[in-house]
Amino acid sequence: MSDSEHDPPQLVLPGEQVAISEEFLPGENTYEQDGVIFAAAPGYIELDSGEMAAHVRPALRMARPRIDDIVIGRVRDVRPAVVIFQLLHIRGDQRELIDELDGVLHISEIEEDYVTSTRDKFRPGDFVRARVIEDGVSIRLSTKGRRLGVVLSRCGRCGGGLVVHHDYLWCSECEWKEFRKLAADYDRIDD
């Protein structure tokens, strides 16, 4: 029941736009705010033209990520030497994650250059693309690489959307400036 039988399903994370309320009603795992329908849960957009509703179909949860898998996660906590993520999605083949799986990013795996503080690179709530480097007791991650790092973030001051401006993120609503370890394709999670 997607908007096109031939297009692959589009992954969305909570807070991302799914549709506009002039065209669809909010459906399962979505909510409407100021005329825009947003995802309330991670999953795949499903636009039902029969009932004119926008849904987010939850991703199946079955597998653990393997070494070298690329995953999408949401930052739960930022500590002095580590960042803890709730893993949400494995990119690529059809495997999906086991429920409530966390990943850990050590400060030495953030980028090639020396990093003095994890708080200069990540904030709770950030959505991040990372590579699995160890699958043991904990899932160890790395964001070393151009396409790894923060792919979506909100302003820490007002909650507005952040856009890339030079080498930092800028909030057009309150004109706040923040820094992150950005993926080269910030604001595009499904590539």
Order of strands, widest sheet: 8-9-10-12-11
Would you tell me which CATH topology of the domain at 70-151 applies? OB fold (Dihydrolipoamide Acetyltransferase, E2P)
Helix-strand makeup class:
mainly beta
| Fraction of helical residues | under 10%
Largest sheet: 5 strands, mixed, barrel
Radius of gyration, in Å, reads 17 Å
CATH superfamily of the domain at 70-151: Nucleic acid-binding proteins
Spell out the helices and strands N to C: EEEEEEEEEEEEEEEE
End-to-end separation: 23 Å
Describe the model.
- Among the domains are: 11-58, OB fold (Dihydrolipoamide Acetyltransferase, E2P); 70-151, Beta Barrel (OB fold (Dihydrolipoamide Acetyltransferase, E2P)).
- 0% of the residues lie in helices and 41% in strands.
- It has no helices and 16 strands.
- The strands form four sheets. Strands 8-9-10-12-11 form a five-stranded mixed beta barrel. Strands 1-6-7-3 form a four-stranded mixed beta sheet, with no helix packed on it.
- Strand 14 and strand 15 form a beta hairpin.
- The protein is globular, with a radius of gyration of 17 Å.
Short description:
It contains no helices and 16 strands. With about 190 residues, it is mostly beta strands.
Topology:
Blueprint: E1 11-12, E2 17-20, E3 25-26, E4 30-33, E5 36-39, E6 43-48, E7 53-58, E8 70-78, E9 82-90, E10 102-106, E11 127-135, E12 139-142, E13 149-152, E14 162-165, E15 168-171, E16 177-178
Parallel strand pairs: 3-7, 10-12
Antiparallel strand pairs: 1-6, 2-5, 4-5, 6-7, 8-9, 8-11, 9-10, 11-12, 11-13, 14-15, 15-16
